[in-house]
Amino acid sequence: IATAQAASPYRxxxxxxxxxxxxxxxxxxxxxxxxxxGAGRDQTILSYSGxxxxxxxxSTCSPSFADFTIDGTSATGSAGALRLEGNIPNTTxxxxxxxxxxxxxxxxxxxxxxxxxxxxxxxxxxxxNLVMSDNGASTANQNTFHSCNLGNxxxxxxxxxxxxxxxxxxxxxxxxxxxxxxxxIHITNCAGATGVxxxxxxxxxxxxxxxxxxxxGSRGIYVQGASGRIIKGTVIKDxxxxxAFHDNPSRQIELAYTTATAIDGNLAHLxxxxxxxxxxxxxxxxxxxxxxxx
Length: 294
Known about the structure:
By secondary structure, the chain is mainly β. The protein has one helix and 32 strands. It has one helix at 2-7; strands spanning 13-15, 19-23, 27-29, 35-37, 44-48, 54-58, 64-71, 80-85, 92-99, 108-111, 117-119, 122-123, 130-133, 144-146, 149-151, 159-164, 170-172, 175-177, 183-188, 202-204, 207-209, 219-224, 231-232, 235-237, 240-243, 251-256, 258-259, 262-264, 267-270, 275-279, 287-288, 292-293. It has a 20-stranded parallel sheet that branches. Strands 3-6-8-10-13-16-19-22-26-30 form a ten-stranded parallel sheet, with no helix packed on it. Strands 23-27 form a two-stranded parallel ribbon. The longest helix is centred in the first third of the chain and has 6 residues, at 2-7. The radius of gyration is 19 Å and the shape is globular. The mean pLDDT is 87.
């Protein structure tokens, strides 16, 4: 892969045949618009056995990736699968799998990254978390996740998906199930990020099933601002929630210090005691439209 990258001109394609490609250090792409494509998500495997860093680390260009899996079975320590660092718009992922990253780092880290797209990607099988956050200079904004699958995560604390100081990020038509973390999606606005906020994030048309690992106090979607750091304009629309067991999760949606949140068109099938929407009393202008909760 490294040899092909060194020989690759601008806007070139690097094709990986079926098989397993083993790496102990990060694959760092530096050539603009490089496309790295495998023979199929279950056929081409990029196996990372590092103890730190990321299997793929991108900070200086906007490449695209398709049709392979990043596997961290042999990774240790603080190794992760992917980092996008800084304002590198239009990085794309299609049919890429991320699995077996149960290390201490964020398995997928969008650190100030913007306008990246993930299409039909998979975060499954012993996977810890996906994190989007500002990097002090830019927000994680306008990233899209369409028809992705996240499930069977490890660890009970924290969130499977965290959006910190992010704006305009969208989860659309995703399948999110069997998440072991106490929170499935956590949207938050933290301190210390001058000029950076959290606004306009959207969770639309997704399927949530049996998340929370039966932990008391578990949440499906947690939009958490704070006094002086209000989260604005979150849209939670046309999602489906299925829960057969108590505390899977305890609360499907929880709001704290938000304004102009829209909860509309959602459908819940719940077979045990449950709370659909938990309002801490510090939210304003919350719109709860027609929802079918049964």
